[in-house]
Amino acid sequence: MLLETVVYNDNLDNIISNINEIKYTFENSDITIGISESVENNLHYVKIICSDKDYNEKIKSKFYVYFSEELYKYIANEFCKNKLMSLVKDSYFFLNADEIDDVCKRCSDIILNYTVINDKNISYINMINSIINKIIECIKENDEININGFTTFRMKNIEKDFSDIIDKVIENYMVEKEYDEFIKLLKYFVDIQDSKVDELNIYVDKEGKYLLQDMNGNNVENKMIDELCDVNVNGVNVDDVLISGLITLSPKKIVIHCKESFNNKEIIQTILNVFENKVFFCDDCKMCRKLKNSLIRQ
Prior knowledge:
Layout: E1 2-9, H1 14-27, E2 33-40, E3 43-50, H2 57-82, H3 84-91, H4 97-112, H5 122-141, E4 144-146, H6 147-153, H7 155-192, E5 199-204, E6 210-213, H8 222-230, H9 238-249, E7 253-257, H10 265-275, E8 279-282, H11 286-296
Parallel strand pairs: 1-4, 5-7, 7-8
Antiparallel strand pairs: 1-3, 2-3, 5-6
Helix pairs in contact: 1-2, 2-4, 2-5, 3-4, 4-7, 5-7, 7-10
């Protein structure tokens, strides 16, 4: 049973190797797939055939998914190689040359390596899956697809989707840049401050409030501690108050206790970025064990 006929010209010889990869994938599931190729006027016609005993709609749907992913890789490579740089330069002319190179590298990594999943790229993967679904719908329209024709007449719509990915990359890039500038400013303030405490211990109690103590267990800057403990979570940002307090005190050493109990893990990263090698972690002191026991009993 014919699954699809793929037509391409001589400069797309890697297409047949991609089709063979799909064939091997099916064969690993004991599904017999045949490939028949002919050439007419520099055009290659490749028929992908499934044995009658194995064929069903589920197999055909699987083929659509596999082939659309291979077609996506080809389109993505062409886009990154030929159009990505000019599109970024035209749309984001305010970026300097180094920033454009950095952004293009980030875009290429996301567009070409979309199967590598982590917390930061989930939204990109959803956008790329949307492109692949569009390719699947195009493949379903006919039993024959001309790769060159597809890239000529369908590419404009897909380029819009790639542009959306670039926009998202730029947005995140600018947020990171602003954050880096913010960290540099905080580090500057720390550098010019006289240290007001040798060691500052940071705890989080069972209610999520920060407790700040010196190395002798004394509350540090009682007024600041009162503000931290009594702050309304719907009002002043308690994390901003904590960072402001740390900048003001500029401790020689900061010990963060039971970091897993921190509701906002980003505050820990910010402290690390600002104070760097002054930051240490503790997870098994007397106070840590007390806090852990109080959390377990909740």
